[in-house]
Write a structure and sequence with these properties.
This protein has about 425 residues and is of the alpha/beta class. It has helices at about 10-25, 65-75, 105-110, 120-125, 135-145, 155-165, 180-190, 235, 255-260, 325, 335-350, 350-355, 385-390, 415-430; strands at about 1-10, 30, 45, 55, 80, 85-90, 90-95, 175, 195, 200-210, 210-215, 220-230, 245-250, 265, 265-275, 295-300, 305, 315-320, 360-365, 375-380, 400. Among the domains are: about 1-75 and about 175-260 and about 380-430, FAD/NAD(P)-binding domain; about 100-165, no CATH class. It binds flavin-adenine dinucleotide.
Length: about 425
């Protein structure tokens, strides 16, 4: 098959680019390695759930203008989150009022920093000693948990900018799940003439100026005048011989090196459905209820949990990110489930057996072990802007690169970043 523009990857970036280019009259083929659209957006009832659950992206973080505009165009409403925030440390649960009390001091030191350094070095320099141990741990846990970052690699300047923002923003969810937006975009792109091929993993791209040849795992071959690669950073970072590795011939050594210098954090999401919202009330078997649970942050092995409030459905999501998720990337799902249930038992003052008896459905989504993702989302390392600029630079007017991982702006690691990057790549391709 031959086309004018071949787009590799039908996630948010690829789908938006496909719609834009097809609407502008370009001949577009969009190829996707999975048997579904959406990439790191994956709403489904897999695992026997009674409700559609988000295996990947779930919230709108902050303003996100492009995402909101597309949701509005698609007629998909958003719902604010609700419920109480809890903190559990040393087995004791209490309402969590703020991220942490030392934030003003932390920000003061971060703003006084004249040169960027990694978080771990910054904390060692300004908050060393036993007096600051708890604070160092809390800050590290937050960067690792929320940004999926490695404290030994994440930029202190990037965290300063993120934490200086308005933390009071709500994080709504798209009604019915993010995948509805992906399906709508795919439909729009196809109506405009784009062709979509699923189950087509590109293993090798041979290129020369004005010509691209893709060899695919299913034996098919595709050629195009130009290609837009929207594969995740984890795919760029894979080494030859590793699952997900995408060969380029000739190789792009500067692009590959830039990708490897960037941060791409792992996440394991644990989705659990129970017979009832058993965390709401104390019983003989459950001594630490968490009524109206919205979000929970803790010192448990699977530390972060949330409900779907204001939707009362009896489901909980557990979240493990950063180095702790990396360590468990090869852990069998049965062991991850066991660890999740024992974390939750600790948080609720009950036993894993009690929880297991009432478990109706479960699903473990291990993004670090997914060869077509290689992780969950990007975080900023030192000199990230330079590396992103290198990775996103087009090659000989023939190869173009987009996706969440090359986005440079305030919405790093989000669906918004993917959309913005896809829109920018489409603009370049139309020039
Ligand atoms: C657990 C998790 C939670 C998240 N939470 C949020 C959130 O709450 N809010 C938010 O805004 N963002 C969130 N994100 C981030 C958001 O999901 C991503 O930034 C965004 O979806 C990325 O879109 P993309 O198009 O850049 O990449 P992807 O969605 O990864 O799309 C790239 C596509 O390329 C395909 N592909 C890869 N290699 C090949 C190949 N060789 N051949 C063919 N196809 C290939 C992949 O299968 C994939 O479909 C989360 C991500 C994860 C994983």
């Amino acid at each position: 098959m031959h086309t004018d523009i071949l787009i590799i990857g039908a996630g948010a970036a690829g789908l938006l680019a496909a719609r834009t280019l097809a609407r502008a009259g370009r001949q577009v083929v969009l190829i996707e390695g999975r048997n579904r659209l959406g990439g790191r957006i994956h709403t489904s009832t897999d695992g026997g759930f009674s409700y559609p659950m988000e295996g990947g992206a779930e919230f709108l973080h902050g303003e996100v203008p492009l995402t909101r505009q597309l949701l509005q165009e698609a007629g998909i409403a958003c719902h604010d989150t609700a419920g109480l925030n809890y903190e559990v440390a040393d087995g004791q649960a209490q309402p969590a009022e703020s991220f942490f009390d030392d934030m003003p001091l932390l920000l003061e030191k971060l703003h006084a920093l004249s040169e960027d350094k990694v978080l771990a070095d910054f904390l060692d320099q300004y908050f060393s000693g036993d007096a600051h141990r708890a604070m160092r741990e809390q800050v590290t846990r937050f960067a690792e948990g929320y940004d999926a970052a490695d404290a030994q690699r994440v930029s202190a300047f990037a965290l300063r900018d993120e934490w200086s923002g308005n933390g009071a923003e709500d994080s709504p969810r798209p009604e019915g799940g993010y995948s509805r937006l992906m399906e709508w975009l795919a439909q729009e792109a196809q109506q405009a003439g784009a062709q979509l091929l699923l189950n087509t993993i590109v293993e090798e791209i041979r290129w020369q100026p004005g010509s691209v040849h893709c060899r695919c795992a299913n034996g098919s071959a595709l050629t195009a005048a130009r290609a837009l690669l929207t594969v995740p950073l984890g795919v760029w970072q894979a080494e030859r011989g590793q699952p997900g590795y995408l060969a380029l011939e000739p190789e792009l050594p500067k692009h590959r090196a830039a990708a490897r210098a960037l941060g791409f954090g792992p996440v394991i999401k644990v989705l659990l459905e129970f017979d009832t919202p058993l965390w709401q009330e104390a019983t003989v078997a459950l001594t630490q209820p968490l009524p109206e649970l919205g979000f929970l942050f803790s010192d448990a092995p699977i530390p972060t949990w949330w409900s779907q409030l204001p939707d009362p459905r009896p489901v909980l999501t557990g979240w493990l990110a950063g180095p702790a998720a990396h360590q468990r990337r090869l852990t069998p799902e049965a062991d991850l489930l066991r660890e999740a249930l024992s974390s939750l038992a600790y948080l609720l003052g009950t036993t894993p057996e009690f929880l297991r008896k009432q478990l109706r459905a479960h699903r473990i989504v291990n993004w670090a072990a997914d060869p077509l993702a290689g992780g969950a989302y990007a975080y900023a390392t030192l000199d990230a802007a330079t590396h992103r600029a290198t990775l996103s630079s087009s090659v000989a007017g023939t190869l173009f690169i987009a996706g969440e991982g090359v986005y440079d702006g305030p919405h790093i690691g989000t669906v918004e970043a993917a959309f913005a990057s896809g829109a920018e790549a489409a603009r370049q391709l139309l020039q």
